[in-house]
Amino acid sequence: MDCALSFTTSGWGPYWTSEAYYGGDCGLSGTITDDQETILETTVQVTSQETVSFWWKVSSEEGCDWLEFYIDDELQDQISGEVDWEQKSYPVSGAGSYTIKWRLPEPS
Fold first, then answer.
1. Tens digits of per-residue pLDDT, 82-91?
2. Exposed, middle or buried: residue 77 (CB in 10 Å: 0-12, 13-18, 19+)?
3. Domains of the chain
4. Any idea which of 2-11, 35-44, 80-89 has the lowest mean pLDDT?
5. Going by DSSP bridges, is the β-strand pair 50-59/82-92 parallel, antiparallel, or unpaired?
6. Range list of β-strands (E), the chain
7. Which residues are CB-contacts of 6 (< 8 A; sequence separation ≥ 6)?
8. CA–CA separation, 69 vs 103, rounded Å?
9. Which of 8, 37, 43, 62 has its CA 20 to 30 A from that of 97?
10. Total-model pTM
11. How would you label 52-67 residue by residue, b for 16+ Cβ within 10 Å and e otherwise?
12. pLDDT in the model for residue 57
């Protein structure tokens, strides 16, 4: 969250900031229950081949509740269970606008 991007949230559980991996701010989802989801997203503009990088962790019901990461609504990765901080990087190829999204759905 320590960047110049504007983030939007949607779904049931609000996001707020909390202590991050490296001492800055981070997004932290609110509590959700069956058939609910919470989403944090932003749009990035790139001029050439670039990389989206971030740190994430999750504390959820393993194999049932997944934290998902998307670029332009295409699932890139997901984690579940008790996962400590991990750095992730994903390429975006070509100039343009990309929507990046973190989604935590709760299955019914």
1. 999 899 999 9
2. middle
3. 8-105 (2.60.120.200)
4. 2-11
5. antiparallel
6. 8-11, 16-19, 25-28, 37-46, 50-59, 66-71, 74-80, 82-92, 96-105
7. 42
8. 6
9. 37
10. 0.79
11. bebebebebeeeebbb
12. 84
Residue 63 phi/psi, 5° resolution? Answer: 80, -5
> Residues near 71 by Cβ (< 8 Å), separated by ≥ 6?
52, 90, 92, 98, 99, 100, 101
> Of 14, 13, 11, whose CA–CA distance to 32 is shortest?
13
10 forms beta bridges with: 39
